[in-house]
Amino acid sequence: MNLRYSESEERFRGELRGWLDKVLPTVGPPPASDDWPGRRAYDTAWQRMLYEAGYAGINWPKELGGRGASPTEHLVFLEETERAHAPYVGVNFVGLLHAGPTLIAEASPEQRSRYLPPILRGDEVWCQGFSEPGAGSDLAALRTRAVRDGDHYVVSGQKIWTSHAEVADFCELLVRTDPHAPKHRGISWLVLPMDSPGVEVRPLRTIYGTAEFSEVFLDEVRVPVANRVGVENDGWRVAMVTFSFERGTAFVSELLQSMELLESLVGIARSTRDGAQPWDDLGVRRELGHLAADLDALWSLTKRNVTQASRTGVPGVGGSVFKLHYSEVRHRLGDLALRILDRAGLSFDDLGGARSGEQVKGWVHALSISIAAGTSQIQRNILGERVLGLPRER
């Protein structure tokens, strides 16, 4: 692994930076956070701009419509888009960052031809239908059933915490196709069209006041067998491929945003309130320094994970190492922000002339990070079993 950028990678950075400087002034402000139709239109329009400029699917293979960029150029892309405050991947998150890569790794040529191009163009949005009311951290306990009926599966059950279901066209769906098999077997990975008869979406309002997640009820929904990715009852293995992408690279933008959040917090700590600066507190300065070191280490770990993934096409357990430690760092960052903000930490609004609102929102968001994409307990199980060789959970 080489942690320094080569001349060609720096040329790529310059080309991308020039394009961003040119197009970003033409992109209007994002819609309100609870305007999901508006957010879909905004996010997919940005995706179309990336596609037309040759920056869509930056690390996807050229033969599948991507740019075919190297892992390091992918990191440069993420660095530069964050630096320029370009629109976030938004509602295209599931399609671009784990459904699409899973299809590249596991789908048939026909499935790739059907689903990958619309994801890259921003024409179709995906959601994730994995968790259920009784199967979140213990996902293998899922009960949504798919019964074979000729060329279709008949699917009935309930999903929860389904990201972007309200505006999605397709869902990456885990179903139980053999109820008599051990719980980690007898599962299949399906592509569910969200406009299928029998699909009902009920948005869930979060602490942010938005409905990023939904409950999805499935009442005898007919899904073509041709929509199954991988062989029947092998969906757990396919889902592990999805998770490896979700934990391996999908948090890279989040990490870069956390670095900006820390930098902003340092500015707040240096500001004077009531005749004093939080910066004068040695404990505050020490904790800020520790957080900066941890975030730098996580960035180096990201480079290592991306380099390793480039050899196999699929991220390894390094993603779980990153996810576990990143969750802890974000909790510490949020807790320190509340200490520094004092009473300003009681409001989502900017108070006292400081950008305090984003720190409070960051603290609230940190609460979900140790749950999303597999809880910290799940990550510890993965590391215990696959890295330390401990006995598997029964």
Structural summary, described in words:
A hairpin with a 2-residue loop joins strand 2 (145-149) and strand 3. The chain has helices at residues 7-23, 36-53, 71-83, 93-106, 109-121, 235-248, 252-270, 282-312, 318-341, 356-369, 376-386, and strands at residues 126-129, 145-149, 152-163, 170-176, 187-193, 199-204, 213-224, 228-229. A 4-stranded mixed β-sheet has the order 1-4-5-8. A 4-stranded antiparallel β-sheet has the order 2-3-7-6, with no helix packed on it. The longest helix is centred in the last third of the chain and has 31 residues, at 282-312. It is globular, with a radius of gyration of 22 Å. Helix 4 (93-106) packs across helix 6 and helix 6 (235-248) packs across helix 9. It has 394 residues and is of the alpha+beta class. It has 11 helices and 8 strands.
